Amino acid sequence: MKPVISDKGPRAEAQSLRQCEGAGNKLLMNSHNDNSDTRKAAENPASSPDSAEIPRPTVEEIRVRAYEIYVERGRIDGQELDHWFQAERELTEIIGSSSG
Questions:
Q1: Which domain covers residue 79, as residue numbers?
Q2: Are 92 and 57 in contact (CB under 8 A)?
């Protein structure tokens, strides 16, 4: 991967990185407060139809990829959740295809 040269400077890059990380933390917090059937099945995998654990990317992997997407899209602020979800989706597909 080529090094990225920022027009905004290191302070703006650090802020954007914190925003991506913050978006991921909000998602994690919301998932802990979710009382849906999906969460219950995840807590008790034996009760789900397919009890095999689905490999998931780590928060750090998602954070790094979300930042890469932010850079690739021209460092436009305000799209942190979009970047986070895209990163999570991409990494989940990669992990799923390599484990299956």
A1: 10-99
A2: yes
Task: Kindly give the confidence (pLDDT) of every residue in the chain, 100 residues in length, as a single tens digit, with 9 standing for 90 and above.
Answer: 444 444 556 666 667 667 766 666 665 555 445 444 444 444 444 444 555 677 899 999 999 999 999 999 999 999 999 999 999 999 999 998 887 6
Angle at 65 between CA 27 and CA 24, to 5 degrees: 15
Would you say residue 74 lies in a domain?
yes
- Asked whether residue 1 is domain-assigned, the answer is no
Q: How many distinct structural domains can be found in the chain?
A: 1
- Closest by Cα among 57, 39, 51 to 93: 57
In a domain, 55, yes or no: yes
pTM of the model: 0.52
5: in domain: no
Cα–Cα distance for residue pair 66/82, rounded to 1 Å: 9
Tokens 């650090």 correspond to 14
